[in-house]
Specification:
The complex is a heterodimer of chains A (151) and B (204). Chain A folds into two domains: 47 residues, no CATH class; 71 residues, no CATH class. Helices cover 72% and strands 0% of the residues of chain A. Chain A has seven helices and no strands. In chain A, helix 1 crosses helix 3. Chain A is elongated and about 65 Å long. The two termini of chain A are 36 Å apart. Chain B is mostly helical and 204 residues long. Chain B has two domains: 97 residues, RNA polymerase sigma factor, region 2, helix turn helix motif (Rna Polymerase Sigma Factor, Chain: A), CATH 1.10.1740.10; 104 residues, Orthogonal Bundle (Arc Repressor Mutant, subunit A). Chain B has ten helices and no strands. The radius of gyration of chain B is 19 Å and the shape is elongated. Chains A and B meet through helix 1, helix 3, helix 4 and helix 7 of A and helix 2, helix 3, helix 4, helix 7 and helix 9 of B.
Amino acid sequence: MNAKELEQLLLLEQSGELSPAQRRRLDAALAASPEARRLRDRLHRISAAIPAPAARPAPDAAARIAARLRQDQAPARAFRPAWKPALAAAAALALLVGVRTFHAPAPVSSESAAAAAEEEDWTDPLDAEFTELENLLLAISSGDSLEITEL
Amino acid sequence: MKGPVETNPALEDDDAKLLAAYRRGDADALGRLVEKYKRPLFGFLSRFAANPGEADEWFQETWVRAIEHMNIFRQKNLPGWLFRIAHNLVIDAARRRKPDCSLDAPLPESGEPLADRIPAAALSPADEAAGRDLGRHIEAAAALLPVEQREVFWLRMDAGLPFKEIARIQRCSINTALARMQYALEKLRATLAPAYRELQETGP
């Protein structure tokens, strides 16, 4: 195991994301190598030294958030531009069609697509596309300049 | 690491109940949610904001967007959703500002990497004299990392998010998130070498 790989396993250990196989490999490396143990100590030392941020939100932050939400609700209902929901719907449709075309050669039912999207596996490409969809819709509705990648 | 953000199902249920209560008109429920996530979320935003006022503004904006768009999407993980919005705000702000000052960027006058100058340049004489304040050295050095690496570093080390969640937020693979963390640590180690030596020589 090289140093880079060892550090990755130590980082995953710290975050509680080691697979059983990775756990076994790391345990073997730690048992065999004093340098591996020193690297782990150094990582813990950095983690322990991180100071909590001194800054705090304003005491009335929650009240101001609630006020903004109330404020946003009324104008949104009264003056909501008609093109925004239409554009969002068109974008959603285009993306979903694109996702299906790219990832599923055979027709996929909406139920199975939804079930796939519900899976928590981060490596699922369909999930990544849904994430892009979420961000696109959020950007459209908030007017941000969000970069759309991987499409 | 301080105050990891929990994402287990029980807490998600709790968040869902508080959100439902807020929608039924219970204003206190929103206050409880804001209180619950204020430390990791505001802490993360304050690492990137130009000043406390901007962090406060981003904090409110994150919550307003999160609540307003909550119904549209299939969000099951409130902290993940909050940090994803916070990430968008941070990235948008980084694009509006001048390009990030990188630890690897050569200084115009000497051509040497900026990282070589960090401890002396980023800390006040009082801080230097006090010495052994590794945490402040880390904060000062991390502030000069490229924004993606800085994000991974603080999301992991301060907010306590797992790499899986960080990868979702940054829309990259878990290997990319890990690599960004390793680049950040490598640069910090180089920058912090003098502080480490001092710590080892004079520490307990």
